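Bench log. Compound arrived from synthesis this morning; before running ITC I wanted a structural hypothesis for how iron/sulfur cluster sits in the protein. Inputs:
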Amino acid sequence: MKMKKTDPATARPAGEISSGRLRAIAVLVREFEREVLGKLIEGNSMGKDLAPGARRRLLEEDAAGLSLENCARCGSCKARCPVYEITKNEAFSPRGRLMLLKGLAEGRISPAGGLLKRISACLLCGRCDVSCPVGIRPTEFIYRGREALRKLDTGRLMLRTALRMGLRQPAFGLGAARFLFLRGQSDGGKWNEFVKKVFPADIAFPTRLPSPRPSFMPGRSRQTGVIGPRKPSGRVAVFAGCVANYLVPETGEALVSMLVSMGYEVVMPRGEVCCGMPLRGLGLAREAERFAAKNIELFGKLNVEAVVTPCPTCADMIKNRYAELTGGGIEKAMDSTEFFLRKLEGKVAGGGPEPDGHSDGGKQRLIWHEPCHLRYGLGFNAGPVLALLDIERPVEAGCCGLGARLTDAETSEELLSGRVIAYKDAARVVTACPGCRMQLERGGIKTAHILEIIEERFFPETIPAPRD
Ligand code: SF4
Ligand code: SF4
C-alpha cells in the first residue's frame, strides 16, 4: 500500500487537534449551551438584574488560578453528582450549573426562578470537586452563584435572617427552635403549616428537640474549658460545631470523655462560633467570612496536637474552605474519626478488644453511611476504621440529601428516600456526621455516630449512666 507523504514543515505535532475538528467541537459546545441555557431564557426572568460586583465576582479566578472559562465541558464531574443522578437533567449537573453561571455572569441570561432552582438544588457535597481533570472546584463557583442570587431569592429572606441571628446568638436561636418545635407538636400541625409558609425550608421540624441540658461544650460554656488528667500526655482542642453543641450533645460529650480517658488535656475555647457553612450555603458569604475570622483567631494559634471535631462538614470548612473566604484555614483541624483511627490502630496492634460480631446473623447489623464531606472534602478513606469496628458498607452508597435541606427540600427528601431503602436491613446505621445522622433519623432510620461505637468498643468506662 502506498503511504501518503507528509511535509515535516507543515505536519501537526502528535496530539494537536486540527482546526476543522476544533470548529466542530465549538459548534457542539454552542448547541449544548443553547440547549441548557435556552430553557431558562424564555419567559423565566425574575425581572431584576445582577449587580455588576456580583457579575465580576462570578468571573474571578479561584485560589488555584482557575475560572469558569477553564471548564472544558468534559462532564467527568457530572458522573458523580447525586442530583444529576436523580434528575438526569444537564442543568442540574455541576457542568450545567457552571455553564448557567457563566451565562449569567456574561449577561447572556437574566436571573430567573429556574436558574435559582438549579443552583439551590446543589448539595454542596463536593463530589464534583474531586472529579475535575482540570482542577476546577465547581462548588466554589456555586457558592459564588448563591451569593450573587441572594438578593433575588426573596422567598428565603426570613430563613436567612433567622439563621443569621440564631447563629450569632445561639442561646436565643436555641430557645426559638425549642419554641417552634414544641408549638408544632402541640397544635396538630397548624403552626407547622404557618411556619412552612414563612420559611421555605424544613428548619422548624428537626428530628430532635434542641437539648436544654447543661453542657461543658464550647458553645455553652462561659469561659474557655480545659478538662484533663493532672499529668496529661498531650493536648488537643475540640471544635464542637453547632449540631454537636446543641442538637446531639451526647456525641460531643463522648468525644471529650474519650480524649480525657486517653490522657489528653482538652481545650474548648470560649466563643467558638458556627463554622459558617450553612450561612455560605445560603449565599451569606460575608457573614460566613466573619465567623471564619473569629474561629481562626480562637483556634489558629493554639498550641495543640490537633483541633478535633465530631463533624466532617465543620472539619472540611475550617481546614480547607476557610481559604476561599479568608485566604487561610485552621491547619490542625481533623475529623474525630481520623483522629481516633490513628490512635486506635496502635492500641489494637497492642491487643485491643475482639470485634463483637455486630454483623452476625443480621440482627445487630451495623451499616455505614459515608458523609460526603468526610470522603470528598477531607479525602478520608473509612475502610480501615470500618474493618476495625466490624461495620459493613452498604451495597449501594449515596448521599443523604442533608445539603439541600434548607435550599431545596424536594431534592433532599428524594435522596433521603433512597437511603431509607438502601439501609432497610440495618440494626443501626453508623455515620461520622451529626448532620447526616439527623437527616437519616427524619427517615425513621436508627442511627449512631461512629464515636459512640468507638466508645462502646474501646472506652466502655466513659459511657454515662442513662439519664431519666
Ligand atoms: S456539589 Fe454535589 S450536588 Fe452540587 S454539583 Fe457538585 S456533585 Fe452535584
Ligand atoms: S470535570 Fe471540570 S472541566 Fe469537566 S465539565 Fe466538570 S468542571 Fe468542567
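What the model suggests: Residues 79 and 85 are 8 Å apart (CA to CA). The beta strands are 225-227, 234-238, 264-268, 307-309, 333-335, 366-369, 428-431, 447-449.
ITC booked for Thursday regardless.
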